[in-house]
Amino acid sequence: KAKEAGKNNCQFYAKGMSATAVNYLLLENDLRRAVEQEQLILHYQPQIDLKTGELMGVEALVRWQHPERGLVSPAHFIPLAEETGLIAPIGEWVLRQACYQQKRWLDSGKKVGRMAVNLSPRQFRQRNFPEKVESILRETGLPAEYLELEITESCAMEHAGETINQLKQLNQMGLYLAIDDFGTGYSSLAYLKRFPIQKLKIDSSFIHDIQSDPNDAAIAKSIIGLAHNMQLSVVAEGVEKPAQSDWLCDEGCDQGQGFLFSKPLTARQFEARFVGKHFAFDGNVVKLNALA
Ligand code: C2E
Ligand code: MG
Ligand code: MG
Ligand code: MG
């Protein structure tokens, strides 16, 4: 097929394809080797209790250290991985790596709360996905309660029937389950109430202008209320300013995640900065203090 030929012959492709398409193909080729050549890396971003400043969890976010292109964002290569099926080995690598890291932190007495890992739709829909998670937990020795899995709202709502079955199995294993980017998909509340989940993550697009846009404020308040009425915890994504954090705290939002607290960091940076510390909110300043 043309796709096969294109791999070894870019000129053949350049005639009929746009530069972006060629670029995409080159990237696909490189991505195939990314896992085996150990070019992927996880960064970690803290999730903070907005009342106490305590570190409640950490989200693992993958990056690709491309030999020529530098650090490639997951927004660029995860969709490609999803399309080509490469998400299976990449997703598995991410999960295993995050579990090993969390187990190391646990074993050394460094409490970081739960480790949250993002799942892409194709990965989540694999029939044997729960078994895969089970075997990675066994391999790494990580107890299930320290692992949280995030699926986006749009992924969850597409084939909602299947989603329920899959979530049930994962829930029975003792994992913590979160709906990511909440508010951006086509949510069905009839389905939402049937999902055995523990957490909603308010999408950052509602947080950005939360102080100036009354609609965003209304939506955020409603999601916080919805979550709490369903006995779920709620996290705001993309918290960048102390005023946003204050507002969210006043509205009863449980946790915040965003550049205000930290950008995603390497494991080493994360450890040095956060382990054994908690945040203190002092007027407009967010400080890091050593735990008493
Ligand atoms: P997400 O899961 O919603 O992750 C939040 C994204 O927002 C991250 O981008 C994070 O770096 C960024 N972010 C955090 N705080 C702030 C802030 O205060 N302001 C702004 N402007 N951005 C903030 P990142 O790391 O580029 O990841 C983008 C998306 O790629 C993620 O969105 C997630 O959907 C996907 N992704 C990342 N890692 C993985 C993975 O291992 N597997 C899968 N399937 N998807 C992943
Ligand atoms: Mg996420
Ligand atoms: Mg999100
Ligand atoms: Mg997002």
Q: Which helices and strands, and how do they pair?
A:
Elements: H1 2-8, H2 10-16, H3 19-34, E1 40-49, E2 55-66, E3 70-72, H4 74-84, H5 87-107, E4 114-118, H6 121-125, H7 129-140, E5 147-152, H8 153-157, H9 160-172, E6 176-182, H10 189-192, E7 199-202, H11 204-207, H12 214-229, E8 233-236, H13 242-250, E9 255-256, H14 267-274, E10 277-282, E11 285-290
Parallel strand pairs: 2-4, 4-5, 5-6, 6-7, 7-8, 8-9
Antiparallel strand pairs: 1-2, 1-9, 2-3, 10-11
Helix pairs in contact: 1-2, 3-4, 5-7
The chain binds ligand C2E and magnesium ion (3 copies).
Residues 45, 61-62, 73-75, 78, 91, 94, 118-120, 180-181, 204, 237-240, 258-259, 264 line the site of ligand C2E.
Order of helices and strands: HHHEEEHHEHHEHHEHEHHEHEHEE
Strand order of the largest sheet: 1-2-4-5-6-7-8-9
Structural class: alpha/beta
**Total DSSP E strands:** 11
The helical percent reads 40-55%
Distance between the termini: 64 Å
Provide the β-strand percentage band. 15-25%
Organism: Marinimicrobium koreense
Domain EAL: 24-278
Protein name: cyclic-guanylate-specific phosphodiesterase
